[in-house]
Amino acid sequence: MPTDEQAPSRMDWVPDIEDRAKPVYLAIADAIGDDIRAGRLVPGQRLPPQRTLAERIGIDFTTVSRAYGEARDRGLVDARVGQGTFVRANVRPGARPGPAGTMTSPTLSPATTGPSAAHPGTAAGSLVDMTMNQPPLPESQDLLQRMHQGMAGVASGLALPDLLHYPEAGGPREERAAGARWLRDRLPNLPVERVLVTPGTQGALLALLTTLARPGDTVCAEALTYPGFRAVAAQLGLRVVGVPMDADGIDPDALRAVLAQHRPKALYCIPTFHNPTTATMPVERRAAVVAAARDHGVPIIEDDIYGTLPEDSPPPLAAFAPEITFHIAGLAKCVSPMLRVAYVAVPDARQALRVSAAQRGTTLMASPLAAAIARRWIEDGTAAAIRDGIRAEAMERRALAESLLPPGSAVTKREAFHLWLGLPESWTRGEFAAHLRARGIAAVTADAFATTSDVPQALRVCLGAPASREDTRRVLHVLAEALDLIPAAAGVVI
Fold first, then answer.
1. Nearest-CA neighbor of 15 among 60, 44, 56?
2. DSSP string computed for 356-411
3. Helix (H), strand (E) at residue 210
């Protein structure tokens, strides 16, 4: 293998993934293998840093991280702590690296077998993907049957013309009315004219940022924020400035300083069960954040995707300042990721027209079938029952985490299904993530969320990903064991 001095230093490689009908992270890993075989990537060549490649092809950091992890598992690349990711020597596509640089088949190597190493709930060699913050499946079989019957009822009850045409931008009135009904506990007396239906939170963010900002403008967000927001901002050519946080979310004094210095076009934040830290702003903090934004004339994009999960949630920011707040209530976390539907409460009818026009020019519409299922479930109470089931299961899994993980190692909330895992000084986040992956668990490091250079040694762990509570227990045992190790004892080179 060439030395670092001999290896090609060019890092302008871009994967060809346009015509690959598979998840993007797998398409990138396939492209790495294809380009190695074609000689476009050579042994020792350094791949672009993950953040750089994500920005270059307009996707989020997490996807690139998964792609490089997949390529590493296939034996195509090596990751060197503090140096980067490099094409391996003597690559045999389909193989993966074993102990001491040897190559093994694409299953768990002997060094990573055993009760803590295999997939903590299914067949050996598979992966518990805890990188996506998905809700746990409710335990109730009756509820699952109710969901299935509801979907079948919608499909059989809709006339084909209702599905085989483009609805009006922002959604037809009956779908907006369903959104107003879903939001009534959070925003009472919300007029239907102020509600829009979008294809998920991501679609809402794209429409809102397109409305509120132009390429080259600045927007601000928490110092740690949802990677999907960062991805949309990068795609639109917007600069993201991070605002310092504490245990209660955005620091209002720091926010005022950022607003005065940078004059952003919008503030994006997640006030309830913040992603990734689970911080929830108390009422006083919400009032202070809203006051800062109002004083500086900055509109707020409030991502309230977790807002209905707590049994006792503070009022949303939109309740404090409806005239400047764009409130997004997605269904993916509190009902189902299957429903790529979000309801957006906008300040007034004029803004509804502007956002609808932006949606028409970007994502166009929510799926009529998904919106119809959401409407049916909201109207007959199924959506609320699913939300309650998710909440109950999240509480059970959170209790498991509290009982099994070292005290003080993780931050979460009672009804949240993700936790923010702080690492002891012996571990770096990259080393810890690699250690978990070798044992069949994928988690996201703080890098994916950072909007400043101050990146904590922490990971987000999704407790909703394992298929059952027993699988969750096994994953938590692996995490607890890893936290008690030091990297050298865990077989990690430092």
1. 56
2. HHHHHHTT----HHHHHHHHHHHHHTHHHHHHHHHHHHHHHHHHHHHHHSPTTSEE
3. helix 200-212
The per-residue pLDDT for range 100-126, each reduced to its tens digit, is: 333 333 332 333 333 333 444 444 446
Task: Tell me how far CA of residue 235 lies from CA of 5, 56, 59, 200, in angstroms.
Answer: 34, 9, 8, 17
Q: Each residue of 35-65: pLDDT tens digit?
A: 888 788 888 888 998 888 988 888 888 788 8
74 versus 316: which is more confidently predicted? 316
The yes/no answer on whether domain 1-100 falls in CATH 1.10.10.10 is yes
Reading the block at residue 435, the tokens are: 């250690």
Query: Distance (Å, rounded) from C-alpha 128 to C-alpha 276?
Result: 19
For CA atoms 372, 378, 384, 387, the dihedral sign is: positive
Residue 25, helix vs strand vs coil: helix
- Which residue(s) pair with 402 in the sheet? none
Better pLDDT: 293 or 115: 293
In Å, how far are 123, 386, 411 from 186, measured between CA atoms?
A: 43, 18, 25
For the chain, the average pLDDT equals 87
What does the block give as tokens for 455?
């990146």
Q: What is the pTM of this model?
A: 0.76
pLDDT band at 71 (very low <50, low <70, confident <90, very high): confident
Q: How far apart are CA 88 and CA 1, in angstroms?
A: 8
Averaged pLDDT for residues 331-336: 96
Q: What pLDDT digit, counting tens, does each position of 396-407 carry? A: 999 999 999 999
Is the predicted pLDDT of residue 138 greater than 50, yes or no? yes
Dmax (CA) for the chain in angstroms is 68
Q: Please count the other Cβ atoms lying within 10 Å of the Cβ belonging to residue 276.
A: 29
Residue 215, token pair as written in the block: 């390429």
Domains in the chain: boundaries: 1-100, 107-138+385-494, 166-380
**Separation CA 130–CA 121 (nearest Å):** 13
CATH number of 107-138+385-494: 3.90.1150.10
Does the domain spanning 166-380 belong to CATH 3.30.160.20?
no
Q: Give 197's pLDDT tier (boundaries 50, 70, 90).
A: very high
Give the residues across from 460 on adjacent strands: 420, 444
Q: Which long-range contacts (CB under 8 A, 24 or more apart) does 376-381 make?
A: 376/150, 376/153, 376/154, 377/147, 377/150, 377/335, 378/178, 378/181, 378/182, 379/178, 379/181, 380/150
For residue 108, the model assigns a pLDDT of: 29
d(CA 139, CA 387): 12
Range with lowest mean pLDDT among 136-150, 237-251, 475-489: 475-489
Which residues does 278 contact at the CB level (< 8 Å), separation at least 6? Answer: 411, 412, 413, 416, 418, 419, 420
